[in-house]
Fold:
Amino acid sequence: MEREKLIEESIKIVGKENVLSSETDLLLYGYDASLFRGKPDCIVLPGSTEEVSKIVKFAHEAGIHVLGRGSGTNLSGGTIPTQGGIIIHFSRMNKILEIDIENQRAVVEPGVFTLALKNALARYGYVYQPDPASEKVSTFGGNFGENSGGPHCLKYGVTTNHILGAEVVLSNGEVVQVGGKSLDNPGYDLTGLLVGSEGTLGIATKLILRIMPKPEAVKTMLAIYNSLEDAGKTVSAIIGDGIVPATLEMLDKLTIKAVEESIHAGFPLDAEAVLIIELDGLKDGMERLAERIMEICKKNNVREVKAAKNEAERMQLWAGRKGAFGAIARLRPNYLVCDGTVPRTKLPEVLAKVMEVGRKYELSIANVFHAGDGNLHPLILFDERNEEELRKVHLAGSEIMKLCADAGGTISGEHGIGTEKKKEMLFVFTPQDIRAMEKVKRAFDPEDLYNPGKVLPEVEA
Amino acid sequence: MSKTDKLFPKLKEMVGEANVIQDPEKLKAYAIDGKKPKVIVSPGTIDEVSKIVAYANQQHFIVIPRGNGTKMGMGGIPKKVNIILSTNRLNRITDSDSENLTLSAESGITLSEVQDSLAKLGRGYFLPLDPPFTNQATLGGIVATNSSGPKRLLYGAARDLIIGTKAVFPNGDMVISGGKTVKNVSGYDMCKLLIGSYGTLGILCEMTFKLLPLPEKEATLSLSFGKLEEADGFVRQLRISQLIPSSIEILNSIAVENMKYPRSMPQNGNYLVTVGLEGVTESIGRQVSEMSEMGKKNGVLETMTLDSDKHRAFWIALRNFSQGLSEKYPNFIGLKSNLLISKSGEMLGNYERIARESGIECAFICHAGNGILHSYILPGKNFRSRIESFVHFIGGLTSEAVKNEGNLVVESSPLSIKKKVDVWGQSRSDYLMVRRLKGQIDPAGILNTGRFVGGI
Structure:
């Protein structure tokens, strides 16, 4: 279909003011937080499920690709329109539809920011647990598509454990309800299948979330190390001792430096690594657990353990963690975030190998990650204008994925496969596994219109 | 030689003669809803499962997976029963990694065996699932039917605990999903698709679970109330508090009387609320005292705390309620309603009223923290003459559940009832996707055909 005709049809559905198609618009919607670029044919801003359904139905009939988008914080190129088509941008569908305290559920539109819901819930003393670092702008549609994680997922599980149902527009425009406010609805767990499917199976227009009362008490500690390896060993030792804190985050020297230069979280500049350890739950016994954790830290040569004395100090520590990616962006023009995940006991060994990869390619690597989950985020720093460096970055990224896979882990813990890690899917899956996933894709989207070219690598039939 | 005659030597060649049962007398015990299988085959490896399934797919034999048979009465009436694939020999723990808090095991092992082995490991661990009949129920059956228990309130269900699966798909492919890491977004989450799929998409062969260390202390608080409003008032107050119970159950007096646990209700006691507590030692005492206060504010008649042995015996009796019941009432009908959490108590009351009006005796056990209400119809004499009224009653409860954003599934019932109701309750808009997935993955329709939603 001619691009003009496509725009014209889209305008008929959502109105002129809700279709973007200038060259600037196409450029703005052609990138996300990954290193990839693409170009859509136009951007449509629907205001209701009905409009989404109409756009999709029209695209289905015309054989046009469709891609949902929130704030574009995707880190794996999942939001890149690599094959053109319509981008459905959810900025207008941004209402919290219901906060249902009695049933411990919230119902939101896909364009709601994660933090906006959290702020609304705070008034009731309730929380939505997953906390992606980009929560200020990350949308629920994106959380749903990517199965986002965050520090508190160590204790509470990732997005999939907190989305219980959705209204979904299928690739032919049909609307179905999956899951619901009540648990155990009969049928396959389609909600569970759709969460993390990266917009390739369905587009959510409404989400039903699990919310829970805010924990009674919280205790946040900062453990400071002279060695990265000791910090890694502490993480395994805490989990091995049977303690599952709410969070167990690690930042290395380069990250600490970047954070202190921009945020001043109070991390000592001469440390090789720090851990942010948070306990939450009932106040009873929490001090005793904290002491046990401190003992474990000491056994693993900690330099010092500080506890946040009040909420302001706690927020300060978390500002350092959550602002880390942004802070690192000040060191070099670009970075590639890896997302490999390994069984927790493998952390010290894998971290050492990651640093070796950096030395091999002469690239600086900063580490800031969810250590308790075994979810690494090596950030490889570079300048994309240097082609040779860019080439090496891709090789190093792939090598890091390989070493995570070889350590019994996987290539992505929370950022998704998207465009970036397709090839590496074969590090962890056989062609048989991929073919089974292809069947799922065909069941939902036989014409391959939803976010084509993502997630699944090509394998022989 | 007929297709079936060829099947026996073929299966024997795959798994060895000793692992194929074709004696018609022995097969009788394996009939499902009166339909007898042609053969029982017990593969010893995933590779053997793969060969059997691939052959069945090619020859269009219907395969029904089976562990220890605790759930063979669940689901709709099978279209046919050709091959029963027993997972009994797939019973190994393949990776027990307490340092990483993960365990991988094959589908034919019972949950009790897994728990025993974990309890002995280091400081002691457990797999936080407490479905019915853990002594007999196998991991495969528990996961395939998404079976759960009271502690789900604190720990979640199979979907929250499984991080990896190995399953044989209808074309014989061994398909791996997830892995050994607690976080994983590589590819589609096929684990979720398989959990609760009743073996209609693949045969679960091996699963990896998240583990937890055994809690320092456990206790049970048991409170009896005269009125449902009081019991429900207590539960509501508890639910919105910051306390962290592992389970909240409401039982009516008929359930208490029929439970294999010697708990008598005080005079005028009609409802028993039991709260499970587990965690660090310091938290237990305080929660017991705060909850006891809450009980007093809501008109409790009697409050008891059960420790160690009594506590354990109580929860086993509660989980295995239907087993005890079937000894006394072999024709009992078990229903599971999934409801809005806040409606748990109110719906129990509505169900009781409908039961009273229909002259039907019913035991109710409600997982009040999760909105799951189990109803057990205790048929008196003259079952046959009352079939219509039972069917009508089930219909009444189903529409009541659907009105409140829930549904109702008949979990166990005599064949005569199954023939007259859709055991899966009210149809849903997403069944069109259920059918399309089944059509893609099992185009020949060989896996557990007829027993799942929409008759697939």
About this structure: The first helix of chain B runs from residue 3 to 15. Chain B touches chain A through 82 residues (CB under 8 Å).
